[in-house]
């Protein structure tokens, strides 16, 4: 698979330069491309390349910020996708001192590529003013702008600058989310759920309280709340689990738990078990497994994986699963004794040790 950074190639830059030239005849295409593809280009990663394009644009556009934005607005309409976030990056780098022009630009640009990263610099600079703007955006006719109102103020937006003030006290975020909770667009509602999930990592009681208030309104809201509570559910938070009907399943027992004692890097760890109910049926069960992975320093770090969840009408259910120890970029494996645990409704039931050999 080709690296994402290679999205920034000669074709993309040629097209960009041509569109800018249509709006600004004095734009020096040749000089711009030469500046972008300098001697250090190949060594730059994705975000570094984006910032380099931003800086190169700045050197070839008018020094007057308002004039540059006027040129870039119609250009941005020709390009859709996250790789074109250098339009927003331009605003973040050069527009912090011109709030009105920048906010108008971010709302425009987000219709073609999200402004969720760039807007955070404005929150950090003037939280009250920017959150007032977020409330206004939450009422926009455009679903991309409404989504920006939620996505832009996520406390823990991946790949973005975090917002420590909202990690500690997310109160300013909540009015925005309450407006967007029942939005017609699933795209917007999904962002609300992700924002709430971020909040749950630092302020679980706030999200649990909101879940209690909003559950049962309608199917879309129930779906949103469950997605918002996914971290709490994985953590086995009993109050959250009970909200969704997954009370302690004391009548359910895990039997015939079998797995390998050893697994080699690149192979699969297979395991199986049977759920038996002491009542007429198993009932509502959220079935998960956890692996306590050995870290570089020898300590263990747990990761929980969902198997299934349902209202089971039978007294018995047999489950066979596997976990692949194939090398992936998002997780590094270390040799040593790991722990496999079966979890029912947030409660550890049975565990077995196995040895991973990465050699």
Keywords summarizing the entry:
Immunoglobulin-like, 359 residues, Serine Threonine Protein Phosphatase 5, Tetratricopeptide repeat, ARM-type_fold, 3-stranded antiparallel beta sheet, alpha+beta, 16 helices, 21% strand, 2 domains, 5-stranded mixed beta sheet
Secondary structure elements and pairings:
Elements: H1 10-23, H2 29-36, H3 46-60, H4 65-76, H5 86-94, H6 99-109, H7 119-125, H8 127-137, H9 143-151, H10 164-168, H11 174-180, H12 186-202, H13 204-214, H14 219-228, H15 230-234, H16 238-243, E1 252-259, E2 262-264, E3 268-277, E4 283-294, E5 300-312, E6 316-324, E7 336-344, E8 347-357
Parallel strand pairs: 2-8
Antiparallel strand pairs: 1-3, 3-6, 4-5, 4-7, 7-8
Structure description:
Helices cover 44% and strands 21% of the residues. The chain is an alpha+beta fold. The chain has two domains: 4-243, Alpha Horseshoe (Serine Threonine Protein Phosphatase 5, Tetratricopeptide repeat); 252-357, Immunoglobulins (Immunoglobulin-like, Sandwich), CATH 2.60.40. Strands 2-8-7-4-5 form a five-stranded mixed β-sheet, with no helix packed on it. It has a three-stranded antiparallel β-sheet with strand order 1-3-6, with no helix packed on it. A hairpin with a 2-residue loop joins strand 7 (336-344) and strand 8 (347-357). The longest helix is centred in the middle third of the chain and has 17 residues, at 186-202. It is globular and about 80 Å long.
